[in-house]
Every structure is written in structure tokens, then in C-alpha cells.
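Hello again,

I reread your note about wanting to compare the complex against the isolated chains. To keep things tidy I'm splitting this into two emails, and this first one only covers the full assembly. Below are the input lines as submitted, including protein chains and any nucleic acid or small-molecule components. They are followed by the predicted structure of everything together. The single-chain runs will come separately.
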Amino acid sequence: MKTMEEIKAAIEAAAPGAGVEIVPNPSPSGQHSLRIAPSHAVAVATFLRDDAELALDFLSNVTGVDWLDKEVTEKVKVTSTVTKTVDDVEQDVEETVEETRKRVQPGCLEVVYHLFSSALKHGPVILRMKTMNRTDQVELPSLTPIWRSAEFQEREVFDLYGVVFKGHPDLRRLLMWDEFKDHPMRRDYVDPDDYEYEPTPHDAVLTRANAHKAAEEAKAREGTGAGL
Amino acid sequence: MLGEGILKGMAETARNFVGSYFSAERMTTVEYPEERIAPIEAARVFPFLVYDTENWEAGLRCVACQICEKECPPKCIFIEKSKDKKPDAIGKPQFYPTRFDIDISVCMSCQICVEVCPFEAIKMDNVFELATDDRFGGLLLDRKELAKSNEYYHGIHPTEAARVDARLAAEKVKADAKSTAAVVASAVKGAERPAPPAAGGV
Amino acid sequence: MTDTAFRREKMEEGWNRPPLIEEDGEAELLEVAMGPHHPSTHGVFRMDLALDGERVVRLKPVFGYLHRNHEKIAEGISYLASMPYTDRLDYICSLTNNWAYALAVEKLVGQQVPERAEYIRVILAEFTRIQNHASSIGFLIQEMGASGTPLMYAFREREKILDLFEELTGSRMMCNYMRFGGCRVDTSAAWLDAARKVVDGLPGFVDEFENLLSTNEILMARCQRVGILRPELAVNAGITGPMLRASGVNYDIRKVDHYGIYDRFKFRVPLGDHGDIYDRYMVRILEMRESITILNQALRDIPGGPIMDAKAKIRGFRPKPGEAYGRIEAPKGELGFYLISDGGPNPYRYRVRPPSLINLTVLEDMCLGSNVADVVLIFGSVDIVLGEVDR
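Full-complex prediction:
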């Protein structure tokens, strides 16, 4: 199989402006991946499937990954012009100060595609796409028109992560029921506390169950009180 | 000929039917409550705690290190560690569990607690007839119900128990040698603390 | 784009969905919810069918009745603690699930596996394949109406294999046997002898099964030219395992990746010609025969030595940051695990690629235009386990 660099060059030749970026993988598995711009994803995917040398006709796995907002501490050199009095003359002097800044690296949702070739028996070639953020700009192009196997798996990513796939023929929840509101696989998902409040003998479940039960009872009392 | 395949299949079932009267191999079912197959040595159901000596409370090998509680996949183990230390079976002062509960309605018999335990204190039982009409209390085993003697362990898993005993004995010899060496060394050099016994793998 | 228009367009590209009846057409459609409590659905699974008389014009699978968010659970516990949960994915084949997960973690940390452990893994995986194929054929025939006999024959044989599993791993179905860098307990000489004895009996069982079924006229009438899956669609839809090979695509991960030590064994990959139910049945029978030859070679060649790598860690296992995708040829298809580590004791991302779910992608394509009675058969020939579909 071609190396990652060769694949990157081939994609850039076939789909100019695709903005392919190699994401290195430090683990011993050595499975590096390619990050592509969502705007060119369909063109890149079509090329990867139809190119005779790559022939990645078999999309094995589609996964979502949730990257939370991360606080990054970094040292920045700041150059500023300060007016100082040097030798009794006012002068503008440039000063460089090292500052420690905290910056919030915005989180995103990422979708990972593992491609193999059933004809040439090579792989995996790993594609990644990122959404702009985790809240309102969560749209990515669907690759279902290129590989059917993405149909259910993209529905699953939509269901559990909330990535909206544009161009998916039938984008509904796959595992959760249609009325369900949240996306359970997100890292900041909080389980509802009403799913099970049987008197489990100990630990946090019991504390939460008791609190929930008390709240339910209070609500019920309030309801009957209002009725009277 | 049409129907040949069906006739061939019927001959096969007839052979099996007649054969079941003559060959024990073809009789595969066991009429369970009346008839039982011999217990398999490796079989595992729910965990129990091993104790040495006569007294179950003093002889518990568990030192409440809580590794099993942390590693348990469905989190069915609940341990409260003691504040004080008590001498264990070999007379070494150790912490002990003041509470050790296993919720067997949650336990999935995976035996990871056994694997991660450095003290050979928790092992798998092979008793499976544990039906009860008490949904909560009856399926929550406390440390008294969990404690089983080392002889019992030898009875259900003889090979494994012999291996465990040999290992513990070897460790004890090593620890004794170390502590004697330490005593000698401390007599020579002054205060030197004896090293704790090495925590072994599985 | 509406679903119908989308499919029309895609038909030209090789998706073999026949055109649907227009919504405003003459025919009156009957909507049937098949499942979730239908004896043929192997658990809780629903198909929303639209029928025009006996003919299926729409089929929408509905999942999630058994969903427990296995992946979320695994992200909250340590790497080792996920191992018993993998048993419960495809609960017929817990040992291959163990292997796939162990393989992915071993790729993630670069862990070596001793030779003896690799042989044990192959032996157990091939036993798993045989018992899975036998019982899945049994279930398929039962769904055809032959209640009992073939299924009970399959279970009789499966019983012997499960006894072996219990003797070695302590449990019949939830084996929890493989570890990162080896296996949990060693096989004794007595166990290997017992395994050889079971393997010696297996060809006779497959012959018996074939006498019973392969030339049966009713089976042929119901299975041949029903539920045809074209190879182009099969590849495009990510179908794997016996279903893909029944459509004539030569893709067996044991041959492609040579994971473990599969390059040491001589075996053939059976392929189908037509991609119908009968081919799927036949491919499974032939795969059982190939598994027996692998078992014979593995039990002959198994070397001595350790079963755990000396560098493998049980407690305090923390892989360095990175990611890995490991996959094996499970009896149902490609079972993959995708792991991302952030250096902590729990995986940052843990993903199962479930063959059962993805093989159902083409269920509608295979069923459209056939009779409703055939839907049960086509569904049975996919060979799924709901524990893995819904996770």
C-alpha cells in the first residue's frame, strides 16, 4: 500500500484544496490518519473508492469521538511598545515579556472512518473529520452515498454524539428512542437519576435514589395540595 | 429423484432415534434435580473470602486493600476498611475489612477480583443453587456469609488451592528470612525496617 | 431528497433495491410490526414491514431494545474490566470477542503474545466458529419450520464444545479467558486430549448434518434464489463474514491480516456463487470443515512454554496516548475494536464494530419483493445476536 504521504499527495492532486492533514499516532500500532476538510469530504471519499491504486471499496468502521473544551496553559512571548525615559529623553522602547496565558481550546466532535480494500486487501486508511464546535455547528457531510456501510453507523453517531450528517438518506436515531433528548456518548452527559431507584444496598446510587424519591414525593404532595 | 433428500434426512433421524437406546453418547441430557453431573473443577459462580485457622473473623486473609472493589467491572463489591490493625493468621498486624459486601444480584462471575487480589484472599465458589425469595437482603452477602475456610477451598478447587498454598508458603519463608535478616541487620546496624512481603501476580 | 428518490438514484449505482410503490399508488399497503417479540427475531428486534399482499415493499429495522451503552460503560472502567463485558456482546461466541479486544489492546501498547497462547487462542476461536455455525444453521432451519431436530443435533455437538470451554475457562458462555499478552490459565494435557477427541468426532457430525439437510428438497426450494445479495452491494455495504463470502467475495480476515498465527495453517476459504440463503448455509457448513482442519493442525503443533508474556501487566495497566484499531474474523464477520488512550487507566474512546449490526444494513435490499414468509428466513441467514447489534 502507499504510504500516508503518498496518499495525501494523491488526494491533493485529485481534489485540490482538500486540506489533507496527517494526524500522527504515537502508539505502537502506527495507524496514522488523515484529517480532511468537511467541504471536500465527498470528493475525497469518491476518489479513494474509485482510484485504481487505492480502491478503498470497503468502509469498515465509523466512529464518533467527543473532544471536550480543553484549557491549555501556554507561555507566550508578548512584545509591546512602552514609553520610557531613557537618558532624560522619552523614547518608545520595545519590550518582550513572557506571559503565561490560559486559553480554552474549543472542543469538537470528530468522526473517524476506517477504510479497507476488499479487492487489493490492504488497509486501514483512516479518515477523520471535525465539526466546528460541540453545540450548534455540528454538521458534517455524510459518506453514505459513497459507502452504504456508513448508513447505520452514521445514524449511530448521530444518535449517540449528535453529529448531523448532511446528505444521509434516513437520519434518525438508531439505538435510543425518537423522543430521547440528549446524546449519551458525549463526555459531559449526565445520566438521569430516575432510571432505577430501587433500594440498592449502598453507595452513590442509594444516595441519589433517596434524593430522587424525596423529590418525587414532594412533587406529588404539592400536586395534591394544589388540587385542594 | 424428488424426495430423495428428505428420505435421506429421515434415515438419519431414525438412526439417531434407534441409536439413543444403545449408545450412551447419544443420550446427552441429564434429568437435573434428580441426576447431577460431576462438578467441574474450574467452574466459577460467585466469589467467597478465604480464611485460615479456626476463627473466621480473625483468619480472613483480606486486608481491605480495596483493589477488587476498584477493579470490579459491575461494582458489586463494597468494602469498609478498619481504622485499627489486627494480627492476621501469621501474626502480622494488618488492616481488616469491617464490612465486606458482595451484591450477587449484580455480580457477573467474571473472576477479575480473584485475579487482581495480591493476597489470595478472594476465590470463586461453585455453589449455584442460591435462589431466594428475598430480592434485596437475600442476594447481598456480608463477610460472615462470604467467609469460607481454606479446607473448603481445597475441596472445590484442589489443584488451584495447592498451587496457592505452595506460593503462600514460599512467600512466608521469604518474609521470615527477610525479617530474621532484618533483625540481624538491625542488631548490627541499628534500626532498619523490615521490607513488606512482595506482592505477587496471578 | 426523499428516501424513494434517493434510492432510485442509487439503483443505477448498483444498490439492488427494487423501486418502491409510490405513496399515492393504487395498491393498499398493510403495515406490520414484526417483533419485538417474534420468535424468529432471536431476541428483541423489530422490523416495520409494509406489505402489498404477500409482497414486501418496505422494511425498516428498529434497533435498541437491548441497548445498554456498552461503550459508555467501558469508558468508565479499566481496560481489564471491559474484558468480561465483551463476553456479553455476541454471547454465543465470547472467546472470539475476547480475542478481538485483546488484539486491539495489544496493538495499542505493542504487546507480544507467547506462541503457546497464540495456539490456544486459535484452537478456542475455531471451536467457537464451529459451534456458532452449527447453532446458527440450526436456528435457520428451525425458522423454516423444522422445529427442533437440526437445532438439537447442533446443540448436542455444541454441548461437547461448551464442556471443553467450561473445563478450561470456568464458564460455558461468559468465558472471560484472554488477557492482554496471553491467556488466563494454561491448558492441561488432559484438556488437549479431550479437545482432540471432540475434534475427531466433528467430521461425523458435519456429515450427519449434511445428510439431514443439504439435499433436502424443501430446504432447497425455500432457500435457493431467495434473498440474493449481489457482491458489489455486499462490499459497498460493509458486509463481512460468511455472508460476504456467500456472495462470492474472497475476503477472510484470517487470510488478509494474518493476525495471530493464522499464516501457519493451511485452510481454504469457501465461497458462494449466487449469494442466496442456500449459499450462506453451504458456506457455513464448509467453513466448519475448514475449521476442523485448522483445529487438527493446531492441536498437533501446539508447543510448550508460557501463556503470558512476562512484560504483561494485570494491575495498573495504563497505555501511552495513542489509538489502535484491531479486528478479527469472528464467526459472524469482522469484529473490530477501536481504542483511543489518553494515558489514563480507562480508555478515552472504546468502540466496537459489530458485524451483526452492519450485516443488517442490506436486510431491506434482500427482502424487498419477496414474500413475507421469506423475510424470516432471510433474516435468519444473516446470523445475528442482538447483544451485539444493540450493545
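For quick reference: The mean pLDDT of chain A is 81.

B.
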